[in-house]
Each structure stands twice: as structure tokens, then as C-alpha cells.
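Continuing the series of single-chain predictions for the mutant panel. This is the parent chain; the variants come on the following pages.
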Amino acid sequence: MTENAIKQISEAFGKRLKDTGVTRIQWIAMFYINKHEMISPRELSKIMNVQDSSATRLIERMEKEDLIEKIPSEKDKRVTFVKLTSKGNSLFKTLIPYGDEFNNELIEGIDEEELEVFERVLNKMIENISKKG
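Parent structure:
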């Protein structure tokens, strides 16, 4: 049941973005890159909960589209970071309302107390599975 809910929510958001030329996964990546300003591909894959290889392909695609750029680490030449380009930053700013509007529709009719309980339950579930490794 929960898997179906997650799938439906993900697909619905993807449909909202369809006319923008940006995929749901690209939107999520841009969200986290924007939030951190610069992030390593490994960190990005971890917070997006995707394989490193998937993140690498996503980064390569977004780099070809001039949405992000790679920045070498000053401390360790083996490490690179990614950040939004001016084009990527500008595009993301136009896409923020899509996320805000979708979130507002998603929680419509759910009061603050219900959302707090939902968040506590989800956090407890994550805590439970984290203990198991």
C-alpha cells in the first residue's frame, strides 16, 4: 500500500514537470545541489538514495544541458563537486513554485497535528530500520 502511494506521488509530480523539460529526478538533484550550493556526486547520490552510477549518469546529462558544472576540490584533486550553473540556477528558480504548489496540494485537508504525527512516525520507522543496518 505504501509503495503504491510513493509511486503515485512520484508519478504525479513527474507529470507536473512534464512541460518544463525537467524530470522529477533532475528537479530533486537541483533541489539538493541548490540547498548545499556545492556537493560531491557521492553525497548527492546518498541523499537522493540512488546508486553512485545513477547519480553519475544524471550529473553527466545535467552537465551536457549546462544545468550544473563540476568544480575540482582545492583540498583533494581526486574529489569534484557539482554546483548549479547560472542557467541551472535560473531554471531552478522558475521550478520552485512547481514543488511548492505540488506540496500544498499534497497536504490539502491535512491539519498541522496530523502532519506532525506523520513525520514522527516516518522518522521512527527510519530510525528502526537504521538500527538493523
